[in-house]
Amino acid sequence: MNIDHLEAFMYVVQLKSIHKAADALFLSQPTVTARIKTLERELNIQLFARHGRGLSLTEHGREFIPYAEQIIQTYKEGKKIMKARDSHEEVIIGANVITSQYFIPYALPLWKQANPQLRYKFVSAPNDILIEKLLQKQVDVAFIKDTANESLQKEQLLDNSVRLVAYPEHPLYYEENITPIRLAEEPMVFFECGAFDWNRIHKLFEVGKVEPRIEFQVDHLEVAKSIIKSRCAIGFLPYLCIKNELASGELIEIDVAHLIQIKQHVFLTYANQDVTKWQLWKDINQSVERFQLHQ
Prior knowledge:
By secondary structure, the protein is of the alpha/beta class. It folds into 3 domains: 3-85, Winged helix-like DNA-binding domain superfamily/Winged helix DNA-binding domain (Arc Repressor Mutant, subunit A); 90-158 and 266-293, D-Maltodextrin-Binding Protein, domain 2, CATH 3.40.190; 162-254, Periplasmic binding protein-like II (D-Maltodextrin-Binding Protein, domain 2). 46% of the residues lie in helices and 20% in strands. It has 12 helices and 12 strands. It has a 5-stranded mixed sheet with strand order 4-3-5-12-6, with helices on both faces. A 3-stranded antiparallel sheet has the order 10-7-11, with helices on one face. A two-stranded antiparallel ribbon has the order 1-2. Helix 1 crosses helix 4 and helix 6 (104-114) packs across helix 12 (279-293). It is elongated, with a radius of gyration of 25 Å.
């Protein structure tokens, strides 16, 4: 009896749909259907009654549920014990580009220090690719922006809201109730990437019926930040990349909360609930707390 067939059976039971079960398992519907039929042949019973496109559990199907649950749980516990015996257990962690650049180099040494028995594999990729890897169980946890995928669970971790920043002593710092017209007078650097919705910033100027003075358009955070630090422009940048510079005073934040607020966070996202029981899970949360205080 194949554990994958039992898992497919339980997903269909819980989600009451082959379509939803296929999405959750990241499989095609025909594959899930084939696994159910194979299980039915092995047991020589009918687990589901088909009604057109719908289906319902048969009496035999309901009776089989506790046995399937017990087999799956026993398998998971055995797998967990075998992993615990491996002194070089591997943990695969993914993160989007911004988190990879500004948080992971700080946190990874802390995780290794707290869990020296673990071997770490790290993957940096865009959010959509990491979501796919989570669903395919190719990574254990991933640091990504918010997702509405029902097969994934998440915990909000890092503030990465977008701030308008400038070099120290910039005149805008001392002004109140800044208008889009006033902003449009300043040379700006635009950092273009999938980190946040630039349309909202463009809309800010459209509503004010002005064109922003975009002197630089770049696709690298450090380039954008260097241009601002060199006093050539101001710009909107995500918090993770400017956290240290704001703390040290190399950059200052311009208050435009009355005009626009772009709040976004990095979420610790996972498909397997068991990861929340790891010691590493606690260490990840502790590293976030230390990072927020770290300059």
